[in-house]
Amino acid sequence: MEIIINVLGESLKVALFVLAMMIAVDFINVKTKGKLESILQSGRRWKQYVVSSLLGTAPGCLGSFAGVSLYIHGMISFGAITGLMLATAGDEQFIMLAMIPETALILFGILFLLGIFAGYLTDFLVKKFHIQTCTDCEIKQYHPGEEGYKHYFKDHIWAHIIKGHLLRVFLWTFSALLVVEFAMTFLDLQSITSKYTFLLLILGALIGLIPESGPHLFFVMLFAEGLIPFSVLFTSSVVQDGHGILPMLSYSVKDSVRIKLFNLTFGIILGSIIYAIGF
I need a surface site. Which of 46, 149, 205, 233 has the fewest CB within 10 A? Predict the structure, then answer.
């Protein structure tokens, strides 16, 4: 019972922190809406990689959703959207900021730089091997913007953040913490994780294929408890993108699969290198 109470208290603290962060990120997103187009349409393609990776690095799914809209409207390349999805780790980014802030900032910085590099490399490979992208994209429009605080609170804070994200974040956090705490109490979890570290790295990459925020949290909790190395957390973060890929699935299943395969490859190769180095 004591474990459950402690986990419940920790989960509530994390959820409140996430709520504050989500509102802040959403507010910035609303205020800067429309300015991305002018930035992306001027200058060289490298701007696409930088802006896309920056959108992915922003905690939550808003950057991913914006990136998908930009991609299907022809404003960014396939490489740019791939780099964006690599750079993002969905709602788990909020949890990492709450539980492992120093590591989270380092990880986000690495993912941002990798997102730029992966975007360029992906476009190079797409061109070299003549891969056809966005062949089955179906252009749809997101709901039009409306003004006013009433609309903002109803559609953004209540419908999107609180109903759409906060409960899910709380339940996944509570579940992950509870599993880890019970496992640490009744199992020699440290021995198990140290013995099968590379297997966990591969497992983290495969679980990252799931288009959902939540499963990745188990690796965040294990890292926070010092039970897995950075390489496992890194690999999982590279491959998974929360549910940022979901809008892309409605536009192009083929491109969604390609994005996931590119990032799975990047994640396993780079994660294995970091693991071999000893991190």
Answer: 149
3-state secondary structure 11-29: HHHHHHHHHHHHHHHHHHH
Per-residue model confidence as pLDDT tens digits over 166-222:
777 778 778 767 877 777 677 677 777 888 999 999 999 999 998 877 788 889 989
Q: Collapse the DSSP code of 129 into the 3-class scheme (helix H, G, I; strand E, B; otherwise coil) and give the result.
A: coil
Closest CA to 272 of 232, 240, 238, 241: 232
Contact (Cβ atoms closer than 8 angstroms) between residue 220 and residue 99: yes
Q: Cα–Cα distance between 225 and 164 in angstroms, integer?
A: 28
187 touches 225 (CB < 8 A)? no
- Tell me the pTM: 0.77
> Are the CB atoms for 66 and 37 separated by under 8 Å?
no
d(CA 99, CA 89): 15
87 Cα distance to chain centroid: 7
Q: Which residues contact 236 (CB under 8 A, 6 or more apart)?
A: 204, 205, 207, 208, 216, 219, 267
